[in-house]
Amino acid sequence: MAAASARDELTGIVAALRAGGCSGNAGTRVSLERDTALDAVARRLSSGGRLQDAITDERYPAQKSSSIAIRPVSSPAAVTSLLQSSHCAALTNPAFTRIGVAYQGDAAWVVLAAPFVAPAAVSADSTGARVLELVNAARAKSRRCGLRRYDAAPPVRLDAILTHIAADHSRDMAQHSRMSHTGSDGTTVAERATAAGYPWSFVAENVAAGQTTAEEVVETWLESSGHCANLMEPAVREMGIAAAFDGSSMAGTYWTQVFAARK
163: part of which helix (H) or strand (E)? Predict the structure, then answer.
């Protein structure tokens, strides 16, 4: 059977099981879109290796993924039986929206994925305002950050310079697919604030990767003792916040929050 027709037949079997459900898993109306970039991930799997390595090597923007190996690919009935008995949970998962398929000899590999979704742009009048609201709500209450307890702290306000610093660092992390407090040029947040002309007496930075909403990222920071401490620091008076998205990066979305007090 030609590779193209075999791929179409396998994709059709997957689609039928996904829509109708199997092995106690309800079907879903969320269809799978064929993705040639995901085909390339599947081809890497056909040569051996792990799914995450294949996704990384192809720089595929997968927020969630799963793979299925079918050895050997015999009759449609046998393939259907294998998928029903061992892979129904993945096949009927509505989070997956893309499919890739590759053949190697008498074996096939199917990769299902949910690509990253870019968040709304973070600015002072949208997501940034929501982050500010959540941060000030958190600061309004005493809380424990790791081993240290913090009293309620005064509210902070958004600052344009700090937001610019945050935006530059978020883009840098996204472009280099790396979450870090150190910039790709080796700079620290203090050095970046000084270079931007912000006259700081206190400066600290929170970073995160993978979250797509203000609520998710603030909750992530509150659950981290160090980031929570920055957020609750009583000396802080101003904040900058920004996110950057790169679909070919490891985490998709990268966030930076800069806290500071002026001299």
Answer: helix 160-176
Spatial contact of 222 and 231, defined as CB atoms under 8 Å apart: yes
Residue 158 half-sphere exposure, CB side, CA atoms within 13 Å? Answer: 19
Q: How confident is the model at residue 60 (pLDDT cuts 50, 70, 90)?
A: confident
Q: In terms of Cα–Cα distance, which of 258, 191, 197 is closest to 230? A: 258
Residue 163's identity, in one-letter code, is: T
Residue 235 to residue 111: CA distance in whole angstroms = 50
Neighbours of 148 (CB within 10 A): 11
Q: Determine the distance from the C-alpha atom of residue 158 to the mean position of all C-alpha atoms in its chain, rounded to a whole number.
A: 25
User: What is the residue type of 25?
Assistant: N
Burial 18-36 (b: 16+ CB within 10 A, else e): beeebeebebbeeebeebe
Q: Measured in whole angstroms, how far is the alpha carbon of residue 217 from the centre of its chain?
A: 11
Query: What's the CA gap between 229 and 201, in Å, rounded?
Result: 17
Q: Model pTM? A: 0.69
Q: What are phi and psi of 239, to 5 degrees?
A: -145, 145
Query: What is the DSSP track for 206-257?
Result: EEEES--SHHHHHHHHHHSHHHHHHHH-TT--EEEEEEEE-TTSSSSEEEEE
CA–CA separation, 86 vs 68, rounded Å? 9
Q: Is the pLDDT of residue 126 over 90?
A: no
Least Cα distance to 55 among 47, 46, 65 occurs for 65
User: Is residue 113 within a helix (H) or strand (E), and if so which, with residue range?
Assistant: strand 107-115
